[in-house]
């Protein structure tokens, strides 16, 4: 009988306390069983191998995570490591005391292509547009298979510490940051408190 789904919250301390070898072996056993079941149902082994490689690699990435204190990960389905959330709560800079949620979707081709990452929290930011698309170079042309989830976490955290107006998705926010940092700071606070910045309404996202 399949056990009921639970909401799983994972922090850096939990990963440090867990035995990475045990976690990897448990997941490996599960993946091998899935492969056997797939072969028994006549699935092509090539596609199964590709999916298994992505799951094995993401398991390794998660076991080796070294999250900063301002970040935590959530797994809505603990059995699905290919879809998870990252919560960033900056403790300095323009976005201090905010709470920003990102969704990660890992493809079967991982790590040969980067995860798809979107910001679920509407934020006034030059590098994140109002639809949640994120402008981070390692999620695009600078991605390499040697990079990990940890690399992306630190990249996203850095966007909140040092927003980059030179490579914007939200051009209005970028122009304000370049021309009037004081006004940019006020706009960020308005958005985080919940309210209008210009004609755009932002929901409250303070901790």
From TrEMBL:
Pathway: Protein modification; protein neddylation. Pfam families: UQ_con. Its EC number is 2.3.2.34. It comes from Amblyomma triste (Neotropical tick). InterPro entries: Ub_conjugating_enzyme (IPR050113), UBC (IPR000608), UBQ-conjugating_AS (IPR023313), UBQ-conjugating_enzyme/RWD (IPR016135). The keyword Nucleotide-binding applies. It is an enzyme of class 2 (transferase). Keywords: ATP-binding, Nucleotide-binding, Transferase, Ubl conjugation pathway. Signal peptide: none annotated. It catalyses: [E1 NEDD8-activating enzyme]-S-[NEDD8 protein]-yl-L-cysteine + [E2 NEDD8-conjugating enzyme]-L-cysteine = [E1 NEDD8-activating enzyme]-L-cysteine + [E2 NEDD8-conjugating enzyme]-S-[NEDD8-protein]-yl-L-cysteine. The active site is at residue 135. Residues 53-197 form the UBC core domain. This is E2 NEDD8-conjugating enzyme.
């Amino acid at each position: 009988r399949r056990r009921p789904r639970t909401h799983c919250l994972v922090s850096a301390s939990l990963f440090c306390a867990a035995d990475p070898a045990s976690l990897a072996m448990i997941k490996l056993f599960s993946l091998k069983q899935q492969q056997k079941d797939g072969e028994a149902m006549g699935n092509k082994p090539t596609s199964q191998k590709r999916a298994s490689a992505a799951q094995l690699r993401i398991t390794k990435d998660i076991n080796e995570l070294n999250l900063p204190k301002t970040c935590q990960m959530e797994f809505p389905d603990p059995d699905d490591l290919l879809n998870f959330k990252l919560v960033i709560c900056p403790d300095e800079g323009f976005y201090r005391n905010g709470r920003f949620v990102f969704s990660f979707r890992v493809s079967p081709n991982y790590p040969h292509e980067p995860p798809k990452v979107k910001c679920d929290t509407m934020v006034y930011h030059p590098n994140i547009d109002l639809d949640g698309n994120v402008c981070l170079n390692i999620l695009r042309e600078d991605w390499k298979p040697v990079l990990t989830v940890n690399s992306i976490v630190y990249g996203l955290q850095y966007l909140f510490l040092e927003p980059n107006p030179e490579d914007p998705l939200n051009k209005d926010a970028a122009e304000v940051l370049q021309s009037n940092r004081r006004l940019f700071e006020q706009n960020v606070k308005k958005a985080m408190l919940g309210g209008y910045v210009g004609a755009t309404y932002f929901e409250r996202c303070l901790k």
